[in-house]
Each structure stands twice: as C-alpha cells, then as structure tokens.
Amino acid sequence: MRDIAGRYRVTSPIGRGGMGEVWTGTDLRLNRPVAIKLIGVPDDDRELRRRFHREARITARLTHPGVPAVYDFGQDEDLFLIMEWLPGDSVGKLLDEHGALPASWAAFIGAQACAVLAAAHSVDLIHRDVKPENLMLCPDGAVKLIDFGLATSTGGEFSRITQTGQVPGTARYMAPELLRGEEASRASDLYAVGCLLYELLAGSRPFESQHIVEEITRSQSEPPPPLPDVPAELAALVDELLSKAPETRPSDALEVYARLRPWIRDVAPIPGWTSRTLATDPAHLYTAALAELR
Fold first, then answer.
1. 52 with 113, same domain?
2. CA-to-CA distance for 257 and 260, rounded, in angstroms?
3. Pairing outcome for strands 135-137 and 143-145
C-alpha cells in the first residue's frame, strides 16, 4: 500500500485507462472509498502533464449522475486524479459473461449512455471513445461513462491532444469519417453508440474480425449484418446510427434516447450484476420519484 499526498491510500488495481493505471483507494481524511488514477511522468514531459490536467478539467466540468465525480488532482511523485469510486464492473465484462442481452437491457444501457452524451454535447464536449469497456454498470443499474482522456471540445475551450492526421480512440468503435482523419463530432459519438447497441443485441461487434485491419475495412465499406430476432424499430435505429454518412445518423443524443426509451420495460435483474433489493434501495427510490416529474 502507498499513500498519495498524505491523504489517499492506494490499495488494489482496477485496470488501465486512456492514460495511466486506475486503483481503488481510501480518502483517509473523509474515510470514504475513492478511485485513484495514477500516471508516472518525467518532469520534462510537459505534453503528458498537459493531457492529464486536461482530462481532470473535462471530467470535473461534467456534473451528471452518469459521470464519476472528480474530487482532487495533483502530483505526488506520480500525477494523480481522485474520483468517485464505482461499484460494479464494465459493460464489456458483462458482454464477455452473458453475450447478447435482451432488447430491454440493450435499450436500458444505451439510453443511459445517451443521457451522458447529451450532457457532454450540450457543453461542446465529444467523448471520442464510447465503448463497452468505458461504461460501468453499477449494482443499482446505473451506467456510468468513464475515461474522458480522449475527449475533445468543438468550442475550442480545451486544447487539442492530437495532431492533424492522428486517429484517437478505439478503432473498432470509430466512425468511418474518423478513420479517414476527419474531425470528431456529435455524430461520431452516436456512431459509437450504434456499435455499442449492436454488440449488446447481437453479442458481437457489427463488423467483427480477428484481424483489426479487416474489421476497419469492413466498417468503411459494408453495411452491418442484420440483427436477428430484434424488433424492427430498434434494428432500424441501430442501422441509422451505423450509417457511413454522419449527416444521415439521428440528429442528436436526445433523439436516440427518446427512441430507446419505449424499449426499457420489464428490465429483469442480472444475477451477480444488479441488486434484487432495488425496490427498497434509497438511491433507487430517489431517482424513481424524480422520474415522475414530467
């Protein structure tokens, strides 16, 4: 174990993010669990330091239930970012364990992701790396979008982290225009939502291949394979999101949310993933009451 800044105790590893490693830890002053992102950086690496500070500012800017809260950041040997600790695990791991999910669960996860993107897009932020591994499913059913290390601003408030011609993000979930080196946009985030929904419904990526070059080539030139046993309206939405042309995708994240919302019904708990006591969970009761305000 190791202490950071005389206040945060690092305990066990969670995994790696866009930059650095993420650990569970404890805020010794407030006696609460936290997530700690650490990145070792040479003193003369100003670019890496700038990128890390940028991620902290972007994540802290988004005040939304679907984004982990930022508590602190700074440097103590390593650069550190202290965030809300999230129980649960990634949607990527959920897919590894269960494969294709019912339409209600796909809509449930996708709608929450779209709610976060609507908040981000409203302040000119593009996530650029929406994928199952960057969505956390908590035991109360909440889905959190994490890792804003590659986010960009369409308003120019935040400096660029890539040079012209570089392709940031995860290639298998990237819109065709990004693979051609074009600028990220709200529409490119929505394409990634299409990839997410397809994978949730089919249990595999739309253009899946063991060879990444083949998968990228297919994503640029082929239509996605049909979704078997998926309601026609939901399958049509996925097809629109996966359109090669950005202008023919749905207009914004709010539209996608609205089209997913009717499919969120009779969402049964997933054993080992979601709690069976939500009917009496105080946080769930709170959000359920809010949902009644129209």
1. no
2. 5
3. antiparallel
Q: Is 28 helix (H, G, I), strand (E, B) or coil?
A: coil
Q: What are the C-alpha distances in Å from 253 to residues 46, 60, 88, 283? A: 35, 21, 25, 25
- Boundary of a domain, candidates 54, 84, 114: 84
For 129-183, how does the pLDDT look when each residue is reduced to its tens digit (9 = 90+)? Answer: 999 999 999 999 999 999 887 888 876 554 454 444 455 679 999 999 999 999 9
Q: Cβ distance 187 to 175 under 8 Å?
A: yes
Decide if 76 is catalytic: no
0.85 cut: is pTM over it?
yes
Residue 154's domain comprises 89-284
Say which CATH number the domain at 217 has: 1.10.510.10
Pairing assessment for the beta strands 2-4 and 8-16 based on DSSP bridges: antiparallel
**Exactly one of 89, 129, 189, 252 is catalytic; which is it?**
129
What tokens were used for 84? Answer: 């809300």
Residue 233 has pLDDT above 50, yes or no: yes
